[in-house]
TrEMBL record:
<dbReference type="Pfam" id="PF11157">
    <property type="entry name" value="DUF2937"/>
</dbReference>
<dbReference type="InterPro" id="IPR022584">
    <property type="entry name" value="DUF2937"/>
</dbReference>
<keyword id="KW-0812">Transmembrane</keyword>
<keyword id="KW-0472">Membrane</keyword>
<protein>
    <submittedName>
        <fullName>DUF2937 family protein</fullName>
    </submittedName>
</protein>
<feature type="transmembrane region" description="Helical">
    <location>
        <begin position="134"/>
        <end position="156"/>
    </location>
</feature>
<keyword id="KW-1133">Transmembrane helix</keyword>
Amino acid sequence: MRRLIAGTGGVALAVVLSQFPEYAQQYTQRLGGAVDELRVITADFDRAAAEGGLDRQAALDRYNASNDDFLAGRGMSMTATFQRYEMLSSTLAQIEGAGPVERLQSLPAFLDTDIGRRTLEAYKPAVPVTMEGIFYAGGGFILGYFVLSALVRFVALPFRRRNRVRVTRA
């Protein structure tokens, strides 16, 4: 009975962990799309600033120095956009350069972002056919099997002692 329960737990955890590479791939695609769009906005702003004889910072300073609340607000908005572009570009480079274990360690960061939440909301499970997917599925099976096996043994421990005492007295 213990092996059946542990095997079921192993299969369940294998299925769950095998989905991580697919989630990471979908997250990376969404992140890459966001970076690409922010790159277009950044390049357009830099081009317009250069046509006006300014660099990015000088153009932002001009926005921020404006007495017009709308223009000053646009300057703050563009500053935030450039910061987001830098942050997301850095995250994308980090993910693209990470190995399977490093990506798994970064899972909380994947889930704790706007892009991560939207990826999870739109997530479509997939069958893992990559080595990474098989690695996670195998690791999940082994971990699930041993955890549930140990849990069943622990729960059954009081009942085993009673049976040993009865056998010994008889």
